[in-house]
Amino acid sequence: MRLEYDWKELWISILGLLSFLAGKFDTLLTTGGVGQLIADLAISGADSFLPTPQSVHELVYELVRNSGPLARHKEVLDTLGDSPDSPGNEALRYTLEVTLFYSEKIGSTGAKEASDALRIIVQEVELNGLHSPTSTADRKPS
Questions:
Q1: 84 by DSSP, 3-state: which?
Q2: Euclidean distance between CA atoms 42 and 23, whole angstroms
Q3: DSSP-assigned letter for residue 29
Q4: How confident is the model at residue 92 (pLDDT cuts 50, 70, 90)?
Q5: pLDDT tens for residues 28-68?
Q6: Is 121 in contact with 58 (CB distance < 8 Å)?
Q7: Average pLDDT over residues 115-125
Q8: Rounded-to-integer distance, Cα 66 and Cα 15, Å
Q9: What's the chain's Rg over C-alpha atoms?
Q10: Is 51 helix (H, G, I), strand (E, B) or coil?
Q11: pLDDT band at 82; cut points 50, 70, 90
């Protein structure tokens, strides 16, 4: 079942919340729930519940655009002593791996404009599907 909704506004709102939380880390007790929401709901199943490919592309673009706040959110969890294997930390690590994958794709082309970045995301997702990093449990030791 595909849900009809203005998904771009939801991504902007969730990632804006992450940015706010990361900026207020000294007053927070816990922040893992939002990262868990993004990884579980948005990224891992995006193509199954988002109504259009454009909605998936916009999600990935917003993740890349907000990579700084996402990284700061990870720092907050680390500062608060959250276990590296906690659900919040695992979810955020997964989200950052997806974000890094697309950031590197965009960076390798030298894209400077938002429209160019979105075009690269569209091409990559259409060609190879939504990037899904392997979980730490599934990774082979290097």
A1: coil
A2: 23
A3: S
A4: confident
A5: 444 445 555 556 555 667 777 778 889 889 989 988 998 88
A6: no
A7: 96
A8: 7
A9: 15
A10: coil
A11: low
CA–CA dist 85, 136 (Å, integer): 9
Q: Report the pLDDT value the prediction gives residue 122, as an integer from 0 to 100.
A: 96
Tell me how far CA of residue 60 lies from CA of 82, 99, 101, 139, in angstroms.
Answer: 26, 7, 10, 23
Q: Which candidate, 28, 33, 136, 20, places its Cα nearest to that of 88?
A: 33
Cβ-based neighbour number of residue 34 at 10 Å: 18
Contact 4, 56 (CB under 8 A): no
How far apart CA 89 and CA 60 sit, in angstroms, is 20
How far is the CA of 82 from the CAs of 1, 2, 25, 37, 75, in angstroms? 35, 34, 13, 17, 10
State phi, psi for 103 to the nearest 5 degrees. Answer: -60, -40
- DSSP annotation string for 99-121: HHHHHHHHHHHT--SHHHHHHHH
Alpha-carbon distance values, 109 to 50, 101, 115 (Å): 28, 13, 13
Look-up: residue for tokens 């996402």? 70
Give the tokens for residue 66.
């907000």
Task: Evaluate the CA torsion angle 49, 50, 53, 57 in order and state its sign.
Answer: negative
